[in-house]
Amino acid sequence: MTTTKSPLHSEHLALGAHLTEFGGWDMPLRYSSDIAEHRAVREAAGLFDLSHMGGVSITGPEAGAFLDHALVGNLSALREMRARYTMICADDGGVLDDLIVYHNAPGEYFLVSNAANADTVLVALLERAAGFDVAVRDISAGQALIAVQGPRAEEILREVLTEDPEISGGTALDDLRYYACLGMRFDDESVLVARTGYTGEDGFEVWVDVPHAVPLWRAFLTAGEPHGLVPAGLSARDSLRLEAGMPLYGHELDATTTPFDAGMGRIVKLDKTHDDGTPVEFVGRAALAARRESAPARVLVGLRGTGRRPARAGYAVVQPDADGAPGPQVGTVTSGAPSPTLGHPVAMAYVTPEVSAEGTELAVDVRGRAEPFVVVPLPFYRRADA
Question: 200, 128 in Cβ contact below 8 A?
Fold first, then answer.
């Protein structure tokens, strides 16, 4: 199968990265060791290439109203130079993808999707744009996305990028809030900087035009080295997001799962209205309204391992019998791994409501052996200043 290469592909090869196919892209899995990269992000900083993510521009006088119709969130209420996590759902309420939407200027929005779902999202948006005065454009090919994540991220960012009131959107870096963005400069080029991320740490995601991606990547590596920054791959990103309790499409989210199933009903704005006060009949609204009122068939929970063997995606969650052998299945693991930060296995799983209470002792069938786990709140890890 042919894979797409990142604009930073040659940089990854030069750094000795182990590459893997991910969402149709050839991306770095790791550069050194998974644990070393994970710990660098928790203790100092990690540098990630996220150029595989999809990017869609939404522009026009009805851009906000269109996004209210196409997505589950109230995006017309999103202030300029702010970002919001949201989802795009099918008519039946199933999640097609989880997204971040940026409001860059009046009538100008920028939407980021997962690599594997980029085509699905683009097709759905184009279909839903009928009747709205908007332009929907795929701009993925012209952009690279570089993330600096970790407690030293802001120091490193300041050494590489400069503030410019003409493109900042009226926000200084000192005042940049979580899920907000501003324009900055790299040399003479403008870049979009967002205080967002997928690691549970403070950090920034930087959108840059492709011709300037390699110089920016190298500048971050050079400036970050004295601060302990290392390049980090997909493996560390996955263990970091799992500790932070962040869902991954294809694991916690899919087309058979609604936001309510995933414990994220708060992002579904059933009460959003048009200017005249009438409800916005966004795609999936009827199904999601019905789902909100129904009893859940399954609940997404966190599981803390009390043994040493980790659970993995797809493993059965069971109630162990008196001898400790696997008993009746009560759920399925969606994501699981050893936690480098906490020192014990962690997992997310969908389980039946009857066994979803905090403190419930369960087990995961790991190759025929009932490994002990207990239900705990999500996230597993939260940074001290969050």
Answer: no
- Would you state the torsion angle of the CA atoms of residues 30, 386, 156, 108, taken in this order, to the nearest 10 degrees? 90
What radius of gyration do the chain's Cα atoms show?
21
Q: Are 70 and 111 in contact (CB under 8 A)?
A: no
Pick from 122, 167, 120, 161: which is nearest to 140 by CA? 122
Beta bridge partners of 4: 25
Q: How many helices (H) and strands (E) are present in the chain, helices listed first?
A: 8, 21
Rounded to an integer, what distance in angstroms lies between the CA atom of residue 227 and that of residue 151?
Answer: 10
Q: What is the pLDDT of residue 326?
A: 74
Q: Is residue 223 classed as helix, strand or coil in its secondary structure?
A: helix
- What is the distance between the alpha carbons of residues 380 and 53, in angstroms, rounded to a whole number? 26
Give the burial class of 252: count Cβ atoms within 10 A of its Cβ; 0-12 exposed, 13-18 middle, 19 or more buried.
buried
State both tokens at 11.
């940089």
What is the rounded distance in angstroms from the CA atom of residue 212 to the CA atom of residue 51? 13
The reported pLDDT for the residue numbered 1 is: 66
What domains are defined for the chain?
4-50+142-243 (3.30.1360.120), 299-376 (2.40.30.110)
Regions of the chain short of the pLDDT cut 50: none
**Average pLDDT of the residues of the chain:** 96
User: What is the per-residue pLDDT for 327?
Assistant: 83
pTM beyond 0.85? yes
* CB neighbour class for 244 (10 Å; exposed up to 12, middle 13-18, buried from 19): buried
Which pair of tokens denotes residue 152? 């030293």
End-to-end CA distance of the chain: 42
The set of residues, in sequence order, having a beta carbon less than 8 Å from that of 131 and lying 6+ positions away, is: none
Q: Name the one residue in this structure whose structure tokens are 């590489």.
A: 160
Q: Rounded to whole angstroms, how far apart are CA atoms 96 and 91?
A: 10
